[in-house]
Structures are given as C-alpha cells and as structure tokens.
Amino acid sequence: MRSPATTSSSNLDAPISISDKILSAWNEQDVEKTLACYTEDCVYVDPNTRGPVVGQDNLRRYLTNLFQRWRMHWSRREIFPLADGSGSTFLWHATLTPAAGGKTVEIDGMDLAVLRGDKLCRNEVYFDRMALFGG
For residue 123, which of 74, 61, 53, 21 has the smallest C-alpha distance? Predict the structure, then answer.
C-alpha cells in the first residue's frame, strides 16, 4: 500500500479527476448527472441502504429519495489509488442538512470507488450513522 507521500502526483491525476466529477454531481444533487457517473450494472452501498443497491434504475430511486430528504455537500480530504489501477479509496468530509430544515451535521467517512473505464461499477460508502441522529 502506498502512502500519499510516496504516491506520485501523476498517479493521482486520473483518480482525482474522476472523483472531482463524481463529487461535483453529488454536490449538485442532480439525479441524472449523478447516475451518469455509474455503470448500468453498478453496485452501491452506504450505511442507509440496508444492503446493495444494484443497477441504475434502483440507484435512481434511492438517489431521488435521498436528494429530496437531504441537502449535502461532499469534499475529498485524501485519495489512495488502488494498486491495480481499478479505482481508489478516498476520505471525505460532508455537511448534511435535512431538506425540511433542522440542524446541519458534519461527518467524515470513506468511499471505495471501483471503476470500469471512467464510471463507478462499485461504490461502497462508510461513515458513522450515529452522527445523523446527534450521537
């Protein structure tokens, strides 16, 4: 495993560019723009999905509900390319505010982002859900 100090900037260019595109889509909360970052047969998991969300149609339903319920902003803190070049893991910080109003919550987490070409075929999101409930 490479640390950020030993990973050359040229090895980070593609993962950073792809993650910027994905985070931009998520920050705009545009369902179709976000789906364009995923393959048709994608697998998406986060602490709220209660299992994998498989395929763009299912992800569309999930994102539509999520984007209606929350105002979110995501920013990458660090990125670690996978050794085989198939994607990256990255640490992030996010602010989430209930769309109906309420307290803004700040959370930190990590994504596993596996690519096919320049699209996500597998996206696993990890964070502590207790932060959403004031814990």
Answer: 53
